[in-house]
Design a protein that fits this description.
Helix content of chain A: under 10%
Radius of gyration of chain A: 13 Å
Number of strands of chain B: 11
Largest sheet of chain B: 6 strands, mixed
Shape of chain B: globular
Strand content of chain A: over 45%
Low-confidence stretches of chain B: none
Order of helices and strands of chain B: EEEEEEEEEEE
Mean pLDDT of chain A: 93
Distance between the termini of chain B: 40 Å
Structural class of chain B: mainly beta
Order of helices and strands of chain A: EEEEEEEEEEE
Largest interface: A-B, 27 and 22 residues
Helix content of chain B: under 10%
Radius of gyration of chain B: 14 Å
Distance between the termini of chain A: 36 Å
Largest sheet of chain A: 7 strands, mixed
Structural class of chain A: mainly beta
Oligomer: heterodimer
Mean pLDDT of chain B: 90
Chain lengths: 113, 113
C-alpha cells in the first residue's frame, strides 16, 4: 500500500508567484493534516481537513494561504503571492479517523527566491 | 499553553542505550507519539502510547509515560548508527473535533561508532 504521497518534493518560486502543494493520503484515509517546518524548528500545525470540509484551520496564516480536500483528487495547499518567509518544508499527514495515528509524507521543500 | 519541550541534542556510543525525554502540557491528551526524521525525509511514526498506559515496549523501543509529571521518554536499546536522526515527541490536544499534533522542537541523536 502506498503511503502519503506529496508532490512536488522540491518547489522553487519567485516572490509574488503562487505555490501549489499536493497531497494524496493513504488509500482509505479521509482525514488530512498540513504542517509546516521552518528551518531549525519543529513542525507547526496548519490545517485539518476531511473530505470537502475544513475542520480546524487555527494554524493557517490569515492571508495568502488556503487549503482544500475535494471529493475527488488530492488535497491542495495553496500559497498566493509567496514571500521569502514562506520558505519551509510543508508536510502532509493522513489518518483513517480522528482517533488514529497520523502518517506523514516526505514533504515538499519550498524555496522562495 | 501548547508547549512540548525536549532537549536539543544527545550523543551516545554505538551499542549503548539512548533515552530521549519530553515534557508536555495537555493533561487531556489521548495519545502521545514519537516520530523519527532523517535528513531530508519526512516523519516516520515510531511508536505511540495511550494516555492510560504507563509503559509500552516494541522491540528495541521502550516508551515510559508519567502522567503526574507530564513526562514522556523514549529508550532505544543497543543504539545503532542508523538510529542517528531527529526524534520528535508529539501530543494531541484534548477535546473538540480537532486531532492536531503539537510537536516538540526535536532531539538530535548522534550515534558515535
Amino acid at each position: 500500500n502506498a503511503g502519503v504521497m506529496q508532490n512536488p518534493r522540491h518547489l522553487v518560486r519567485r516572490r509574488g508567484q503562487e505555490a501549489r502543494l499536493r497531497c494524496s493520503p493513504v488509500k482509505g484515509h479521509s482525514h488530512v493534516y498540513w504542517y509546516r517546518q521552518l528551518p531549525e524548528e519543529g513542525l507547526k500545525f496548519m490545517v485539518y481537513l476531511q473530505k470537502e470540509n475544513i475542520i480546524d484551520e487555527s494554524g493557517m496564516p490569515k492571508e495568502r494561504f488556503s487549503a482544500e480536500f475535494p471529493k475527488e483528487g488530492p488535497s491542495i495547499l495553496r500559497i498566493q503571492q509567496v514571500v521569502r518567509g514562506d520558505s519551509a518544508a510543508y508536510f502532509c499527514a493522513s489518518s483513517v479517523d480522528s482517533n488514529q495515528p497520523q502518517h506523514f509524507g516526505d514533504g515538499t521543500r519550498l524555496s522562495i527566491l | 499553553g501548547e508547549d512540548v519541550e525536549q532537549s536539543l541534542f544527545l550523543s551516545v556510543r554505538e551499542g549503548d542505550s539512548s533515552v530521549i525525554n519530553c515534557t508536555y502540557t495537555d493533561s487531556s491528551s489521548t495519545y502521545l507519539y514519537w516520530y523519527k526524521q532523517e535528513p531530508g525525509a519526512g516523519l516516520q511514526l515510531l511508536t505511540y502510547i495511550f494516555s492510560n498506559m504507563d509503559m509500552k515496549q516494541d522491540q528495541r523501543l521502550t516508551v515510559l509515560l508519567n502522567k503526574k509529571d507530564k513526562h514522556l521518554s523514549l529508550r532505544i536499546a543497543d543504539t545503532q548508527t542508523g538510529d542517528s536522526a531527529i526524534y520528535f515527541c508529539a501530543e494531541t490536544l484534548g477535546g473538540g473535533a480537532t486531532n492536531k499534533l503539537i510537536f516538540g522542537t526535536g532531539t538530535l541523536l548522534a550515534v558515535q561508532p
